[in-house]
Amino acid sequence: MKEKRETETIICNGCGKEICVTDGIPKEDMLSVEKRWGYFSGKDNEVHRFDLCEDCYDRLIAQFVIAPETENGE
């Protein structure tokens, strides 16, 4: 028998804010990133994962020289 574990909170890697998760659904929207680095990087085959709350995401993209592409979800 396999034990199923559910995440109760997600912690923002940027600011440490806790985001509650109820029935598998985060109570705030957030950005989750998973990146497996390729052979031509200094992180050959490493997998990096992190989560950002919306405020930390906004601070991050404010630093971009070229803004991310956006579209309205309608």
Characterise the protein shown here:
Helices cover about 10% and strands about 30% of the residues. It has about 70 residues and is mostly beta strands. It is extended.
What order do the helices and strands come in, and which of them pair?
Elements: E1 9-11, E2 18-22, E3 25-26, E4 30-36, E5 47-53, H1 54-61
Antiparallel strand pairs: 1-2, 2-3, 4-5
The percentage helix is 10-25%
Topology pattern, helix = H, strand = E: EEEEEH
Tell me the radius of gyration.
16 Å
Strand order of the largest sheet: 1-2-3
Summing up helix and strand content along with how strands pair, one would put the structural category as mainly beta
Number of helices: 1
Number of strands: 5
Inertia-based shape: extended
Query: What composes the largest sheet?
Result: 3 strands, antiparallel
Multimeric state:
single chain
Strand proportion: 25-35%
Summarize model confidence as the mean pLDDT: 92
Instruction: Return residue spans where pLDDT drops below 50 for at least 5 consecutive residues.
Output: none
The first-to-last residue Cα distance is: 43 Å
How would you summarize this macromolecular structure in one to three sentences?
By secondary structure, the chain is mainly beta.
